[in-house]
Design brief:
single chain, about 160 residues, alpha+beta, Gyrase A, domain 2, 6 helices, about 45% helix, about 15% strand, globular
Amino acid sequence: MPEETIVKDLMLYPVSPSILYFVDLPGTKCKIIQNNGNKLYCAKYPMLKGLFRKDVDETKKYGRIICDKVAEKLDNFGFFTSDERPEYGISYGISEKEYAYMFELIGAKEGEHLVEMFAYPEREALESKIFFEKLLRKTYFSYILDEKTFKMFFGAP
């Protein structure tokens, strides 16, 4: 699949809202999670695995744009995802055992789900998740609506 179509191909279906899952990782070596009392909130999205990969320019750029928008809107540091794993260039200190535990706890499938993670208090994590989903829906509509209709609903891209 050519790099410039990855985001579009992954965004062929509308994004359903996710439940916000609580995950406690008491022995984690991840500084981001340690700074939130070893607590993490997660959301899962089927059929979006790979949307935030760091080893592909298109998804790396898209991920940076979305994360920066969430961070700016919520005045925080954004989020990180299961796509940001050692094989994709980053791990944040989360072990594979912790990833496996997290996926099992929230009912996510490794080869299918994108798991979004927030190391904030619950309310801030929820607000970040809601805004993240709004941005994903906007991306989806940018691909399925003609330019005039999209501008009518969302303004300029």
